[in-house]
Write a structure and sequence with these properties.
globular; mainly alpha; about 475 residues; 21 helices; disordered N terminus
Length: about 475
């Protein structure tokens, strides 16, 4: 159901219908479910696409896992540059559709693709040219450096495919067509597993390339995903590429994209920078701690997978409501999604912690790494009280136009607690990676309290981008 096509009387009834009697199926709850499921599957497959390299390389060596994990973290960090545009694209497309401004939505799509193509090519060139210097600065050396560089040079050189892929996915999601990115990633994931199996281990007559084989497979699959998504967008969503943007650059739309994207991506950049600093500190604890972190990060991301999916779906619905000027409906939607996300994330975190020993037995034979990981998975249960709340309210506040607040909250608490606190407890006080993980949990829960208070205060209301255009 496209919310942009609802009549005004239906829109006016949303707030009461969201809060209606148990068992009543409101239009927004149906839309939330219809968006959440494909986003959930797509996010699962995207996570698996990255995790497949880690899990399949675990049969190669723990050192390869550690090296590729650090290289991937740096590559992912650079993707934040693309999110400056993608986050703005998602918010503006949602609000313009809610306000029935389709021409403006199509202009935003064209601007986003052009800007991310240019920035993607620049990032690709930098990652390829400076891979050794970047990974050396992060603390890798010897054989681990060589493997990390070989991976980053290939995957990084084709990062611009990911830039365009993320933009195209954002456009489809905002248009209530999240099922298309889900199907594309499903196909690409299968191709990546097959490619990894062939090129890492030399099966079916292919050369055994190890880490380089994983990189070739990942880069190729991202290219395939980008091409398929481009075909889908221009056949189902955007009638044609808005070439008029080259004759007269739409400054207002570009300015709005940057106004949303810079602080929104700034929140992600703050988080990723803090994670890079933490990874550097963990490197000083030895290969076992670095490998344990890599394994845990790739396992734990499945715990908060549902939170990511329902938060993105909720943010799209909130954006539509804000575009239609229905602030009470947006407020109730945020509270409802928070309850659902928190409940299921805690269930998943306990289940993963209970299965921790069995999971690690499939990944490594190193008893020290296994012991660290099983302990971390239990600490993560406390962390997951706060994380789903943070994931949700960062997304819905940005969707409502309150784009600066999440950035300031992240900047203050991530660095003062997650980074400084982790260094003190992990290194200075000698508690190692387990002490650091307790500080990560404290950071997540403090920020959750701050975000809940912001949502309840309603100070985010009337910050949308369509009111002045109505």
């Amino acid at each position: 159901m496209n919310i942009a096509n609802l009549n005004i009387s239906a829109v006016a009834s949303w707030p009461s219908r969201i809060a209606g009697r148990r068992g009543v199926k409101s239009p927004l709850r149906r839309e939330l479910r219809s968006l959440t499921l494909p986003i959930l599957v797509e996010t699962l497959l995207i996570m698996t696409l990255g995790a497949v390299d880690t899990f399949m390389l675990s049969r190669h060596s723990d050192a390869s896992v550690a090296a590729v994990g650090l290289a991937n973290q740096m590559i992912t960090f650079t993707f934040i540059i693309f999110e400056v545009i993608n986050l703005g694209t998602s918010v503006l497309c949602s609000q313009y559709l809610g306000a029935r401004m389709r021409d403006r939505m199509e202009t935003v799509v064209g601007v986003s693709l052009v800007v991310n193509l240019i920035s993607g090519v620049a990032v690709s060139a930098l990652l390829y040219a400076y891979a050794p210097e970047i990974l050396t600065a992060l603390g890798l050396d010897g054989s681990m450096l060589a493997e990390g560089v070989s991976y980053m040079e290939i995957v990084g050189a084709f990062a611009f495919f990911q830039a365009l892929q993320l933009t195209l996915s954002a456009v489809l999601r905002s248009n209530n067509k999240a099922v298309y990115p889900m199907m594309v990633i499903l196909v690409v994931n299968c191709l990546n597993i097959l490619g990894n199996y062939m090129l890492i281990f030399g099966e079916f007559g292919a050369p055994a390339l190890g880490v380089r084989g994983a990189a070739v497979s990942t880069a190729t699959c991202r290219m395939v995903a980008m091409v398929i998504l481009a075909v889908i967008v221009f056949r189902t969503t955007v009638r044609r590429f808005p070439v008029h943007i080259f004759r007269r650059w739409p400054r207002e739309e570009f300015r709005n994209l940057m106004k949303i994207g810079l602080p929104s991506a700034g929140e992600q950049m703050s988080y990723s920078c803090s994670q890079l600093v933490i990874a550097y500190v963990i490197t000083s604890l030895g290969m076992e701690s670095l490998a344990a972190r890599t394994y845990c990060v790739n396992i734990i991301m499945y715990v908060y997978l549902f939170s990511i999916a329902i938060s993105h779906a909720g943010a799209i619905s909130v954006g539509h409501l804000v575009g239609a000027g229905r602030w009470q409906g947006a407020y109730l939607m945020g509270r409802y999604v928070m309850r659902v996300a928190l409940t299921w994330t805690l269930v998943f975190s306990v289940a993963i912690a209970l299965a921790g020993t069995s999971i690690m037995a499939m990944l490594t034979e190193n008893p020290e790494i296994t012991a660290l990981c099983t302990a971390i998975l239990w600490i993560d249960v406390a962390l997951e009280i706060g994380r789903p709340v943070n994931i949700l309210f960062v997304n819905v506040l940005q969707a409502a136009g309150d784009v600066n607040y999440p950035f300031y909250v992240g900047l203050i608490w991530m660095w003062s607690v997650a980074v400084v606190g982790a260094y003190l407890f992990g290194i200075t006080f000698g508690f190692g990676i387990l002490g650091m993980w307790w500080m990560f949990a404290l950071d997540e829960n403090i920020r959750a309290i701050v975000f809940i208070r912001r949502w309840e205060s309603r100070r985010w209301q009337h910050k949308g981008f369509t009111a002045a255009l109505a």
